[in-house]
Amino acid sequence: MRAFRHPIPALSLAWLVLVVLAALLADLSPYQYDIQVLKEAYGAPSALHSLGTDEFGRDLLTRLIHGARTSLSVSVTAIAISVACGMALGAAAAWFGGWFDRAVTVTVDLTWSFPEILIALILVAIIGPGTTGTMVAIAVAYLAQFTRLTRAQILTLKGETFIEAARSLGAGNTHILLRHLLPNALAPVLVSAMLATGDAIILEATLGFFGLGAQPPTPSWGGMMSAGSALIFKAPWIIIFPGLMVALTVVAINLAGDALVASLDIKAKLRGPV
Amino acid sequence: MTFSFKKTLLAASVSLAALMGAAKAQEAVFVLATSEVGTPTYNPIKAGNLNKATTLIFDRMVSQAADLSYHPWLAESWEEAADGMSWTFHLKPGVTFHNGEPFNAQTIKDWIPLFAGSDNAYMVEAIAEVQVVDDLTVKFVMSRPEPNMLYNLSSSFMSVVEPKAFVALGDNYGVTEVYGTGPFKLESFTIGQETVLVRNDDYTWGSPLAKNQGPAKIARLTFREIPEDSTAFLELKTGGVDMLMTVPADLMGEVQKEANLTLLTMPGQDVYYMPMNVTKAPFDDIKVREAAAKAINQEEILASVFGGVGSVANTFLISALPESHVSDTSKISYDPAKANALLDEAGWVMGEGGVRMKDGQPLKITLWTQSDSVFRRLTEVVQAQLKAVGIEAEITTFDSSMIRDQYKTGEQQAAVRSYNWDNADIVDWFFGGDRLGYPNVSMFNDPKAEELRAKAMTGSKNMEERVANFTAYHDYVLTQFPMAPIYQPVDAVAYNKDRLALPEVINGIGVGAIAIMDMEVKE
């Protein structure tokens, strides 16, 4: 973890910890995120409302904090689902090979040939808008990445002598997969999951911007930016602060992710035959 | 070296002169209203939605003044038979279409039957036969009196098309080519982007409601489609365009701050409302519907969402229409005490977290809205107002272009939407029992309403009777609470006053053909 001693990765990590803490402790925020005080609408940042109020007179800081909860929980859950399903599929495809491998690879390649946002939009249109829809949509959109990555890892590991040794000692398929192959394939997948979480936050914000993410009054960063875009002249803070949150968080995830790659020294593994 | 330098200089000055010449010509760029973005055709017969440029390509038989009275246009005069069973129109001589075809009585005879089978067929439904009396006189023989005839003839859906080209071009008419008799000809049309019109130099038959009967002063007019209001405003502010055909309430202040921009407001034709699905619980109970309708605080919405611009809506029709004058008891306005009492009566008792309960079930509904920012903002305020009387509304946002198909499923419980129309027959359109789903979002099908509706639509001999019948129909519909009225906006346009000169008086509805005929580009 030496990489995190440098100031930029350290700052990124600190920011991420702060955002996660804010999301966890959102209920302690000074105001309620859904109570409208229409008389105080469009308030500029002041002592009472440090980041100003939105078009319904709700405290913007409170909504940003609750928005962090929405954005993080949706993107982290989605990526977790994606990683779990992707690893299972990829490992099974690599291990069993044959027609199963071909079927998985073709399906996954097919979804990979579309931009993530397009897949997500189609899925949300089918499932319906809301946090569940967004979660599933993001999970499926990133499935291809983890399936291919795991498959490639397992394929390279499969021929190693320690696997051969395990097999000659009488280990079964499940044992070899769970005990020897997946743990060795885990590190690059985890780093790639971390970087994908950054993308997922952007995707979640994009869906929210189109009004397809968390439905009001639940705040999400994308939804807040969307509302603010129509008010950019009247109350610019409504769009600026959520925009900053998305930008800073995604940049922090990427910088921290880079540092993690450096400290784990898994660049070579990431570059494997994907 | 010297030669080439001189050449460059020469070329530069030539192109500079050309640029200056272009700037001086009568050219203008307008931005269409956001509600008109993406209209797929200029075919008035087939279209469900037409944009403002339509009013410049075509003329109509009758023009309507700002006070909603009717005036000549392509028809110089007309007579209605005493029993309402026939109409005779005397047409203006010397009118030609953009493709050179003459406009005469035969045109009308060929044009009316083209409506058969289209969504707009109801406009000519009462015309049994069109007779050519002489070259410039045409007679409609009616199957029943139609007091709304002049309104229909003044509507943009009854823009007079060139019938031969219409038949020959089929679905391409209005998309690749279009011919009318209007002051402008279509040069190019890219759906969802822009429409370029050029002046019809032969035009001398404009509506008498404008000072100038033709040709138009502007030589070339581009209508751009910009879906986001704030982007359109930036274009106006930086001089990229000369006029915005709509300005939402929250940008009006910004327009007024700019020294070179002028804001012009006129009475609007929109009504915002909340339809409630009368076939789905809990709104199958009229008490719950009445309570929800009376929980809407129209004054608060007017002040907070629309900055006090416009007026509240207490009926389903715009207040300029005589049919909006229903009895005071039928008007729907904010009454939280009554709303709470009604819900108590209906058996919904206030539970934990401020949500009412009945038989262990919370009073929870879904509230549909479309993705435009003003709808989303309005819907969030409605959500909070419903919560105040113990109704929990969950908002579902649909893309504005997709929501009509969603309504057709009939799954909606309540929605926040708006319509734009200035005739009482809109009550028939949105609450007629044969249009369930969409347009009848409320799924309202009531035997007494159907009876009153039939009387209003087809049983009126003259305008007075029609107003009385529609008022009664409208009044009854309001007492059944299939919807809650919310807000009536004003129409606002913003223009660059260094570039455009508008007439002092616009004796038409909104900024359309009548206003644009008198408009000039400053040189």
Major β-sheet annotation of chain B: 7 strands, mixed
Can you count the helices of chain A? 10
Helix content of chain A: over 70%
The count of strands of chain A amounts to 0
Distance between the first and last residues' Cα of chain B: 39 Å
What fraction strand of chain A?
under 5%
Query: Unreliable runs of chain B, pLDDT <50, ≥5 residues?
Result: 14-23
Order of helices and strands of chain A: HHHHHHHHHH
Name the CATH architecture of the domain at 270-488 in chain B. Roll
Shape of chain B: globular
What best-fitting shape of chain A do the alpha-carbon axes yield? Answer: elongated
Relative strand content of chain B: 15-25%
GO molecular function (chain B): peptide transmembrane transporter activity
Family (chain B): Belongs to the bacterial solute-binding protein 5 family.
InterPro entries (chain B): Peptide/Ni-bd, SBP_5, SBP_5_dom
Signal peptide (chain B): 1-25
